[in-house]
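fyi for ur records
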Amino acid sequence: MLDDLDRRILRHMQATPEKSIPDLADAIRVTTSRLTRRLEKLKESGVMRGQCAKVGWHNLGYAVEVSLRVTLDKTQSRAFDDFIAAAREIPEVLEIQTFLGQVDVRLSIIARDMEHYQEIYRAKVLTMPHIADIEALMLVARIKSDESLPL
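which gave:
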C-alpha cells in the first residue's frame, strides 16, 4: 500500500506541514514534480486528507476545557440524530465522539472561564434533546496529544 517514499513524505508532512513543496522535495531528495504526483496520489487514495492549521485556543482567551460524557434517552428513535445535530450548533464544542457502552456521546467544550462555561452549560447544553444523564470532567492537564502516526 505505502512504499518507502510515501512513508517519508508522510513523516515529513506530519512533522513540518508548513514546509513548501520545493523545500519538502529537497528534504526527501526527490524532484518537485515527483513529490507533487505522490501527494496527489496520497490525497486521491484518502491516506492524506489535507493540511490544516492548529489554532492555539488558549492564546485566544479560552482557559477551560470540559469533557462531557452524555447518556441519551434511547427510548427515543431519533435521540442520537437530534442530539448530535444540536451539539454541532454549539460553537464552543470542539469535538463530538459517539461510543458503544454506557456513555453514548462525549463532547469536548472550551470556555473562557468557569463563568462562561456555566453560561454554555445552562443555555446550550442543558437545552439539547434526549439527555438522560451528563457527567462533566474538567481537564487539568494534557499529558500527550499527538495525532502523528509512527510511519
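The first strand starts at residue 64 and ends at 72. thats all i got for now
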